[in-house]
Amino acid sequence: MTLFHLIAGWIGYLLICLLGLILIAFLCFCLYIKYIHLKYDHIPGPPRDSFIFGHSPTLLREMRNDRFVHDKFLEWFVECYTHIESGVGKYSVVLLLHRFFGNGLVTAQNHDEWYKQRRIMDPAFSSLYLRGQMGVFNERAEKLMDKLADMADTNTAANMHHLFNCVTLDVITKVAFGVELDLLNKSDSPFPNAIEMCLKGMVHYLRDFTFQLYPKNKKFINEVKKSCQLLRSTGRQWINERKMAVQNGEDVPKDILTQILKTADKANDDEELMLDNFVTFFIAGQETTANQIAFAVMELGRLPEILTKVKQEVDDVIGMKQEISFDDLGKMTYLSQVLKETLRLYPTAPGTSRFIPNDIVINGIPIPAGVSCVFSSYVCGRLDKFFEDPLKFDPERFHPDAAKPYYCYYPFALGPRSCLGQTFAQMEAKVVMAKLLQRFDFSLLPGQSFDVLDTGSLRPKSGVVCNIRHRGQTPAA
Ligand code: HEM
C-alpha cells in the first residue's frame, strides 16, 4: 500500500512538472509571438483575427469558401503599397512530401545556383531561337483550328480552356523537349490530368501545410504523388533518350531539353536537378499561357466592339494567310494590347514573393530583414490608384502612346527573377488568338462561361464554353 502511495505521489509530481513545463513553453511561445507583433506592428495592415494565428483564420475561411484569396488582399490593400524587387530568396517546392519543382529555375533559392541555370537556359529563349520555332507554333495552332472546324461543323460546344490546355502542352513538349504528344487528338493521355492534380496538390499544400496529416485526404494525396511520379519518370525517360543521342553524336536540337542536360553538374550528373527543371518547364510553360488565352476569349466573347476591332486588325495583318510569321506578330499591336489587358485583370501567376535579406525602407516604412514579402499583381492591376475604372476591360490602357504602368503592372514579375518564358508565351498566345479570330466567330454559352462575383469581377466557370461558327456562317437556331 505504501509503495502504491509512493508511486502515485511520484506520478502526480511528474504530471505537475510536465504541466508546468508545458505552461512555461506556451508562455515562451506567446512572448515570441508578442516579439514578432512588436517587430512588424508598425507596418499598416488589417486588424488581426487572433493573437496567435494572425490573419490566417480569415484567409483559410476565404479559401474554404472557394473565394479568391487575392480579392481579400485587394480589400486589405494598404495605402503605402509599393513594389520592390530585392534579393532572390525563394522556396524550393516539395509537393506533399514528394520532390516537385525542387531546385529548378523557378524555385532555386541559392543565387549562384540560380544564376548558373539561368545563363545556361537563356539561349533557348533568345529571339533568334524563338523565331525559328514559329513553324511549331503555327503547326500546333493549326491542329486546334482543325478541331474547332470539326466542332463548328457538328455544332458542338467547345470547352475552350481544355482545348487551349492541350495546345499549349503540345507546344511546350515539342519546342522544349522535341516530343509530339498531339493531345488534341489523343484524349487518353495522362498528362493533362497529372498536371492538374499536381497544381491542385500545390494549392492545397500552400494553403494548409497540415493538409497531408488528415486521413480523409489520403486518397487525394496518393493521386497527387502518382501524378508527380509520372511527370518525373517521363522526364527521366526523355532526358536519358536525349543523353544517348548526344553520346552517339547525333544532331540534337538546341532546345530546352539539351540545355537542361547542361544544368547538371558534370561531376555528379545531378539527375534530380535535371528532373526539377524538366517539371518546371513542363508546368510553367503551359498552364499560365492556356489560362491567359481562355481569359482573353472570355472577355472578347462579351465585348463585341473590342472583338470587332481586334478581328479587323488580324484581317489587315494576316488576311487569309495560314502561316503567321514572326514579323506579323509585331504588327498585331491591338492584339498585344488585348493580351496585356487580359493579364492586368487576370494575371495567371497572380503574385510572387521575395525574401528580404537585409533591413530595407519602403515608402518610409522600415521592413526588418528576414521576412518574405508577397507582391500581388492581381491587387495592383485592380486598384483605381493605378488604373482608372479598374474593372473595365480596356485594351487602350496599353496603347503604344499611353503612359507606361511602371511598377504596378508585373504579370511576368520584374527584375532578375522575372519570367524567362515571357516572349515564348506571348508569341504562342498571339499565334493561337490570331488564327482563332481569323477563322471563327464565337459566342459564350450563357450560364456556362463566367460568374459575376459580388466584388464585381468575373470568374470563368466550366472552362469558358463557346459556340463556334466558321466566320460568316449563320448561327444555328
Ligand atoms: C502567360 C504566361 C506566363 C506568365 C503569366 C508567367 C509568369 C511568371 C512569373 C510571375 C514568374 C516569376 C515567378 C516568381 O517570381 O516566383 C515566372 C517565372 C518563370 N517563368 Fe513564366 N509565365 C508565363 C509563361 C511561361 C512560359 C511559357 C515559360 C517557359 C516556356 C515560363 C518559364 C518561366 C521560368 C523558367 C521562370 C523562372 C525564372 C527565374 O527565376 O529565373 N513562363 N513566370
UniProtKB/TrEMBL annotation:
TM helices/strands, residue ranges: 6-33
GO CC term (a single one): presynapse
Subcellular localization: Cell projection, Dendrite; Endoplasmic reticulum membrane; Microsome membrane; Postsynapse
InterPro entries, alphabetized: CYP46A1, Cyt_P450, Cyt_P450_E_grp-I, Cyt_P450_sf
Keyword hit for Transmembrane helix: yes
EC number: 1.14.14.25
Keyword line: Cell projection, Cholesterol metabolism, Endoplasmic reticulum, Heme, Iron, Lipid metabolism, Membrane, Metal-binding, Microsome, Monooxygenase, Oxidoreductase, Steroid metabolism, Sterol metabolism, Synapse, Transmembrane, Transmembrane helix
Cofactor: heme
Signal sequence segment: none
Family, similarity comment: Belongs to the cytochrome P450 family.
Protein name, per record: Cholesterol 24-hydroxylase
Source species of the chain: Salmo trutta
Annotated gene: LOC115175114
